[in-house]
From TrEMBL:
Matches recorded under NCBIfam families: citramal_synth
Pathway the protein acts in: Amino-acid biosynthesis; L-isoleucine biosynthesis; 2-oxobutanoate from pyruvate: step 1/3
Keywords: Acyltransferase, Amino-acid biosynthesis, Branched-chain amino acid biosynthesis, Isoleucine biosynthesis, Transferase
Catalytic activity: pyruvate + acetyl-CoA + H2O = (3R)-citramalate + CoA + H(+)
Molecular function in Gene Ontology: (R)-citramalate synthase activity; 2-isopropylmalate synthase activity
InterPro entries documented for this protein: 2-isopropylmalate_synth_dimer, AIPM/Hcit_synth_CS, Aldolase_TIM, Citramal_synthase, LeuA/HCS_post-cat, LeuA_allosteric_dom_sf, PYR_CT
GO BP terms, alphabetized: isoleucine biosynthetic process; L-leucine biosynthetic process
Gene3D superfamilies assigned to the protein according to its UniProt record, in alphabetical order: 1.10.238.260, 3.30.160.270, Aldolase class I (3.20.20.70)
Family as reported in the entry's similarity comment: Belongs to the alpha-IPM synthase/homocitrate synthase family.
Uppermost EC category: transferase
Pfam families: HCS_D2, HMGL-like, LeuA_dimer
Name of this protein: Citramalate synthase
UniProt EC number: 2.3.3.21
Length: 534
């Protein structure tokens, strides 16, 4: 696109709360949906398809409660279907509940593939056209802005193009403000999408046209982009690509792709900067693991590991980055591993000593120590807390705020759920504390005992929590004597970091990772403990 041309506006229609909730393992409560809508206000003017009134009590409750909320920037849409076969729209429970929802925008889907008309609705092609025409007309006469989802449009267009186009014609003639072309099975190729969009534009010249694609062929983002290039003005999708089967078009990728690469007008620059935190918020709200390898918003999206790459990017970020990560609220990460060179270590050390130079012997010292440790089983890519502790120790800027004098852990399967007990003895300054704690397993017991022993000295520990625990056997051929790697993830607020331990004793490896987690929490976040830094 010519940079001097005016940017074409692309509207985002967010189906995370409805389509996204159909994804395996994804669930939103009524309160989740309200929180979602409140948060997405920060993103600017978007359509949010919030649910199907009448489908379940949760959605009914949401549409009642949202009437009381102030969400001026967000267009709440209710979703449903056409009336049923041989049913008049004014008698349709589906349509009446859509009207009663109070949503100004109503999106209904209708069949655009003759196979579905015959084999699913089991009615005539003419009756299906009536369902579309009369359902849209009824909702328009009730004062609603009606969007029509042409379900399975691209499959229908392949097998019976005249009928698929007739379905679009019926909806537009009945007053639908926009028709959305759907690749519901997610099996279409980009050329199929382009052809279908071009044909609809040629036949009807609609001012507004939408695209809704699924990711069953891994092409949802590409197909959405092709549709925009072919002339659609509205893109439907879900944050993080949530949705049934393989998911829907991923807005976390599509929005920056369209705005930064395609030079379309999608969101404000300030909203674009919030893409990364919003994608993480959506994952947290849905209780789904966040894919750190997502383009644009994942932690790995701008992570650099190879020493030569890091050296180049520090000289000119364009050498190995296609855009500034800050544009989407993300950040560059320099990974440290046995692949690292001095440039990696130097860049990381500058976080703690901005005045250090690349030729400083401490850079070489840290690099050699890291390579030696990784050769013995450590892996710092997923353990940045332990890595940073190593670096501040190298810089002589870390003084341990406590000392573990002794600890014992034992388990008894007959004890019930809390089957383990840990006793720890720690020293803080001149004070010695000994604490016993129960836990669900030895690691949980040890974690509880350490936190209880130290919490009165370092209150910040009460705000952090262990959120993940992973064990990997490094040499399975040695059986129970094998060396194991333990990685623990700790969270404080929205920040998560990993720490690591390696030993042929799983409890010792776990204790090492736990102690690093506690030390890093205190060093970084406890104001009082900062006085102990050298």
């Amino acid at each position: 696109m010519n940079q001097n041309e005016a940017k074409r506006k692309i509207t985002i229609y967010d189906t995370t709360l409805r389509d996204g909730a159909q994804g395996e393992g994804i669930h939103f409560s009524t309160q989740d949906k309200l929180s979602y809508v409140k948060r997405i206000e920060e993103m600017g003017s978007l359509y949010v398809e919030a649910g199907w009134p009448g489908a379940n009590p949760r959605d009914d409750n949401f549409f009642q409660l949202i009437k009381e909320q102030e969400v001026p920037m967000t267009h709440i849409a209710a979703f449903g279907s056409t009336c049923k076969v041989n049913e008049a729209p004014e008698n349709s429970e589906i349509l009446l509940k859509l009207v009663a929802s109070g949503a100004k925008t109503i999106t209904i889907f209708g069949k655009a593939w003759d196979l579905h008309v015959r084999d699913v609705l089991r009615t005539s092609l003419e009756e299906n056209l009536r369902l579309i025409r009369e359902s849209v007309s009824f909702l328009v006469k009730q004062g609603h802005d009606v969007f029509f989802d042409a379900e399975h449009f691209f499959d229908g267009f392949k097998e019976n193009p005249d009928y698929a186009l007739k379905c679009i014609e019926m909806a537009l003639q009945a007053g639908a403000s926009i028709a959305i072309l759907c690749d519901t099975n997610g099996g279409s190729l980009p050329k199929d999408i382009a052809l279908g969009v071009e044909m609809v534009r040629r036949e009807f010249a609609p001012q507004e046209l939408g695209i809704h694609v699924h990711n069953d062929s891994g092409l949802a983002v590409a197909n959405s982009l092709v549709a925009v290039e072919a002339g659609v003005t509205q893109v439907q999708g879900t944050w993080n690509g949530y949705g049934e089967r393989c998911g829907n078009a991923n807005l976390s990728t599509l929005v920056p792709l369209l705005q930064v690469k395609g030079n379309y007008d999608v969101l404000s620059d300030s909203a674009l900067h919030k893409i990364t935190p919003f994608s993480r918020f959506a994952a947290e709200l849905s209780n789904a693991p966040f894919d750190e390898r997502q383009p644009y918003v994942g932690r790995s999206a701008f992570a650099h590991k190879a020493g030569m790459h890091v050296d180049a990017i520090l000289k000119n970020h364009r050498t190995f980055e296609h855009m500034d990560p800050g544009e989407v609220g993300n950040e560059r990460r320099i990974l440290i591993s046995d692949q690292a060179g001095k440039a990696n270590i130097f860049e990381r050390l500058r976080r703690f000593d901005p005045d250090i130079v690349k030729e400083d012997p401490l850079v070489e010292k840290a690099m050699l120590e890291i390579k030696d440790m990784e050769n013995n089983g450590f892996q710092f890519e997923a353990a940045e807390g332990s890595l940073d502790l190593l670096l501040v120790r190298t810089l002589n800027r870390f003084t341990s705020p406590f000392e573990v004098l002794d600890y014992h852990v034992w388990s008894d399967p007959l004890r019930g759920e809390l089957d383990s007990v840990a006793v720890v003895k720690v020293k803080v300054g001149e004070q010695t504390v000994q604490i016993a704690a129960e836990g669900n397993g030895p690691v949980n017991a040890l974690d509880s005992a350490l936190r209880q022993a130290l919490a009165s000295f370092f209150p910040i520990l009460a705000e952090s929590e262990l959120v993940d625990y992973k064990v990997r056997v490094l040499d399975g051929s040695r059986g129970t004597e094998a060396i194991v790697r333990v990685i623990i993830d700790t969270r404080l607020g929205h920040e998560v970091w990993g720490t690591i331990g390696v030993s042929n004793n799983i409890l010792k490896a776990s204790a090492q990772a736990l102690l690093d987690a506690i030390n890093w929490t205190i060093w970084k976040f406890d104001e009082g403990a900062r006085r102990a830094r050298v």
